[in-house]
Amino acid sequence: MTTAMTDRQGATAAAFRDYAARLNAVLAEGDWGKVALLADELADCVETQRQVFICGNGGSAGNAAHIANDFLYGISKTYGRGLRVHALPANTSVVTCLANDEGYDAVFSHQLAVMADPGDVLIVLSGSGNSPNVLKALETARETGLRSYAILGYSGGKAKGLTDVAIHFPVDDMQISEDMQLIVAHMIMQWLYAGRGGVA
Fold first, then answer.
1. pLDDT digits over 65-115, tens only?
2. Which of 47, 76, 143, 195 is most buried, judged by most C-beta within 10 A?
3. Same domain assignment for residues 99 and 17
4. Are 102 and 135 members of one domain?
5. Does residue 111 contact residue 92 with C-beta atoms inside 8 Å?
6. Pairing between strand 121-126 and 51-55?
7. What is the pTM of this model?
């Protein structure tokens, strides 16, 4: 191995250690009480059969689909036992139709207006907290009588003031913001699967 290759590997490893350190710092400062509120809400949703809707854009859209899978199937030890959960970005036909006909800011809110009932739960995932379609979804949730949670990065944006419960990680890094969405969801998933929320 050449000296140049060794130096490059050392610099690469240092960059990865720096990322891990920044992620660990965010984890150390997390407000886990807010996460506990969401966990308790979702446990109650299993019991009461209330629906849960999840939305976000870009990487957060991918996370919404991932989390919906974990909550529908991953928490269940019994056939048919899980959350009635919907990832609003997942149906490309619906999303592209609404974006084309109603505008991209309506792709989540229109689905909520059709499918959601008072008492259901909305979880929005956003790094910036300022995506117009996420904000409109939160507004529709309030108008429809949904309980809303937002997992946010950066300053929290406008979403921080629109949601009922803001799970906010104030880090100016989109990738770590998106990491925290999955970390929160996986924490709750394992807690529900372990039966700590009464789920069996």
1. 999 999 999 998 888 888 999 999 999 999 999 999 999 999 999 999 999
2. 76
3. no
4. yes
5. no
6. parallel
7. 0.93
